[in-house]
Amino acid sequence: MNKYERSMTLGFMVFGAIFLIGGIHYKIGRFNSPGGGFLPFWFGLILVTLGGAHLISNWKELKKKEEKFFDKRSGMKKMVFTFISLPAYTFLLSWLGFIITTFLFMLFLLRFIEPQKWKVVLIVSIMTTIVAYAFFVLWLRASLPPGILEKFLPY
Amino acid sequence: MEAFQHLMLGFGICFQPINLLVCFIGVLVGTLVGVLPGIGPVAAISLVLPATFKITPVQSLIMLAGIYYGAMYGGSTTSILVNVPGEAASVVTCLDGYQMARQGRAGPALGIAAFGSFIAGTFGVIGLVFLAPPLAEIALKFGPPEYFSLVILGVTLVSYLGGGSLIKDLMMATVGLLLASIGTDIMTGAQRFTFGVIEIAEGLGLVPVVMGLFGISEVLVNIEQELKTSSIVEGKIKNLLPNLKDWRDSKWPIIRGSILGFFIGILPGGGALISSFASYAIEKKVSKHPEKFGKGAIEGVAGPESANNSAAQAAFIPLLTLGIPANAVMAILLGALMIHGITPGPLLMEKYPDLFWGTIASMYVGNGMLLILNLPLIGIWVQILKVPYPILFPLILLFCLIGSYSINNMVMDVLVMVVFGLVGYLMKKTNFSGAPLILAFVLGPMLEDNLRRSLIMSYGHFNIFYTRPISAIFIITALIILVSSIIKIKGRKVIPIPPKSEDD
Is this structure's pTM higher than 0.80? Predict the structure, then answer.
C-alpha cells in the first residue's frame, strides 16, 4: 500500500460514514420493519469497517520511499487538460450549440494534447462533427442544444 | 424437443432482416473493440447503450450480446499480431500467439483462434439452450431470502475470483450498493441522498456511471501513460486455414477449453479472463511438451481462445434465468433491459420468449458472422490496428459526452459521468476495481428490496436466510469463500491471476 491508496481508502471510509449518518437521518427502523435508512446505515458501517481493516492490515507495508503519483509531468498535464475539456464541453454545449462545440472540442484534443498536423486535425474534426451530427441528431433524433449554425441545417 | 421448437422460434426472430442487421453491427463493433487496445467490451457496450434505447429490446439485446462475444474474437487478433491484448481475456493468447506470428505462423494462429472460438461459442450456446430452462424452473421457487442470499453470493464470488485484494473488492461492492440507494426509496417513496437535486430523484443513471468508470477513466489513464502500440508483425498473413497437424494438436485443447470455459462462465465472477488462464494452465500441465509453451505452441492459443468464448456465452445463463449478472458486462445488459422495462429472471423465458430465444439464436448466427469477419477480412483489422491512439481517444470521449447527454437531455448526467470518470481514474491508479462496484450498483435495489421483504416476512429474524435450504446453500457458500480467503491471506498470497480486469 502506498500513501495514495491509503488516501483513497480514507476517502471511501468518509463516503461510508456519510451514508451511515444519512441512514440514521432517514430512519433505520427495526429488524422487523426496516426503514429507508436501514441499508445505507448498515452498509455504510460495513464500508467504514472494511476500510479500517484494510488500513490496519496494510499499515506496516506502507512504503518508505514513495513512488510518484504521475510518472511524468507531461503525462499529468495531458491528463488534467483532457479532464478539464469534459466539463468545458458540457457548459459550452448549451451556449454555442452542438456543431461548434464539438468541432472546437475535437480540435483542442487533437492539436494540444497529443499534437497532430493541422491538416489531420482539421480533417478529423470536421468529419467527426458531420458524422456525429448525422448519427445523433438526424438518425437517432437526439435533441442536442442548437446553436447559431444549426439554424441553417435540417433538424 | 421443446427446446428445439423454441430455438426454431428464435431463428424465426433472428432471421428478420433488421435483427440480422443489428446482430451484424453488434459483432462488427465487438470485433472492432476487441482489436483496438485501450477500449474493452465494458466501455464499448456503455458507449453504444444510449443508441440501443431507440430500438426494440430484442434488437438491443442481440446487438449488445454481439459486442460482448465479438470482442472475445477480436481480442485475439491484437494479441497475436501486436503482442498487446485487445481485451483482458486475450492476455494469455499473447504468450504463444505472438511467438507463432514471429515465426511466420500468424495465419494458423489467427485461424485456430477463430475456429476454436467458433466451436467453443457454439458449444456455449448449446449448453445455454439446455441448461437455461431447468435452471429457470428452479429459480421460480425463489423467494426474497433466496434472492438476497444469491446476490450476496454473487457479489462475494466476483470479489473473490477477481484475483486482486478481496477486502478492496468487497469495499467496492459496498460502495456500489450505497450508490444504488441514492434516489427514491422503493418502499416508502422518500428521497434519499439527493440533497434536493431533482435530476437524481430516480437515482444515478447506469449509463453515466459506467461510461465514467470504464470509458473516461480508461482514456485518462492511457493519455497520462502515453499508450503506444508495439510494432505490428509485418508481412502478408497467409495460410489462415490450420493444417492437419495443427488440428491434431488443437483438437483436445479446444474441447477442454470449451467445457472448462462454459462451467467457469456460469459462475458469477468466473468470466472469460479466468477461464482463459485456467485453460492455459491445464494445457501446459497435460501437454507432453510443456517446454514449448511460451515459444509458439498452438495449444496455448487454441485452449484459452476457446475457453474465453465459451465462457462469454455461458455468462448469459445466470442473467437470463436468475436475473443475476455474472460480470460487469452482464450487469450493464441487465441495466439495459431494465431501462426497456424488462426484468430478467426465471419468468423471462415465459413472458418474453421472443427476446430470450431470439437472442440465443442470434448467438449461433453471430458466431458464423464472426468467423467470416475474422478470417477473410483480417487485413482490414490489421489496418485498423494502425489508427493511432491520439486520434482515437477524442472520438471515445466525444461519444461518451454525447451518449450520456442524449439519454435524458440532461447536463446532470454528463456531470455525473465526469465525476465518475475522475473517481474511476483514481481507482485505477490505486488498484481499486470497478467491476464489483458496477455489479453491486446494478444489483443494489434487488438486494435492498429482498432484504427488507425477508426481514418483514420473518418478523425481524435473520434465521430466514439459513433455515430455508436454497438460501442456506448460497449463504454458507459465501461464508466458506470469505473464511477460506481470510485463511489464505494469512497463509500465503492468493491465486496467481493478473490484476483485475475491468472487462470481466
Answer: yes
